[in-house]
Design goal:
InterPro entries: Cro/C1-type_HTH, Lambda_DNA-bd_dom_sf. The chain has a domain of 96 residues: 434 Repressor (Amino-terminal Domain). Helices cover 61% and strands 0% of the residues. It is elongated, with a radius of gyration of 22 Å. The protein starts with 10 loop residues before the first helix and ends with a helix. The chain is mainly α and 153 residues long. Helix 4 crosses helix 6.
Length: 153
């Protein structure tokens, strides 16, 4: 059975993390198969000139921002203490539980906002690098046309 790496520092993995993409979505944007993305990321295959040219608009904002992986926040939960059966302690426990739940939900929002801001900043550059969409009357059945239709949608 295949084993998946938890963390990769390749350029493709950094692009996926920076823009919040899956490997499948990156493969569609680059016009290659998801298997080739995995091989490129692991170093089993080298980037071709064509793939490097398609990847360049994604790398420019990423390298300018010099993104470093964020370290996880330390656990700030107080150590458990003796609990009384009184209603005040039950209410306190319920409030602490709700606060933890809200903190858990809140932890992803800054990262999502950062990804959205990166996309907003990079969108003009990415759209300028794309060829114009094919005319509505013509629909060539090529892999490149399918990729462009996905990108322009």
């Amino acid at each position: 059975m295949a084993r998946f790496a938890n963390y990769s520092d390749s350029r493709l993995a950094r692009v996926c993390r920076y823009y919040g993409l899956t490997r499948r979505e990156l493969a569609v944007l680059l016009g290659i198969s998801p298997g080739l993305v995995s091989q490129l990321e692991s170093g089993a295959r080298a980037l071709t000139c064509d793939v490097s040219a398609r990847l360049a608009p994604f790398l420019a904002p990423l390298e300018a921002a010099e993104v470093t992986p964020a370290s996880p926040a330390p656990d700030t939960a107080p150590p458990p203490g003796p609990f009384d059966a009184g209603p005040l302690q039950r209410r306190r426990a319920a409030c602490l539980h709700e606060a933890r739940t809200l903190r858990w939900q809140l932890r992803d929002l800054p990262e999502q906002a950062a990804v959205a801001a990166r996309w907003a900043a990079a969108l003009p550059t990415l759209l300028a690098a794309l060829p114009p969409p094919p005319p509505a009357g013509e629909a060539p059945a090529t892999r490149e046309a399918v990729r462009l239709r996905y990108v322009h949608a």
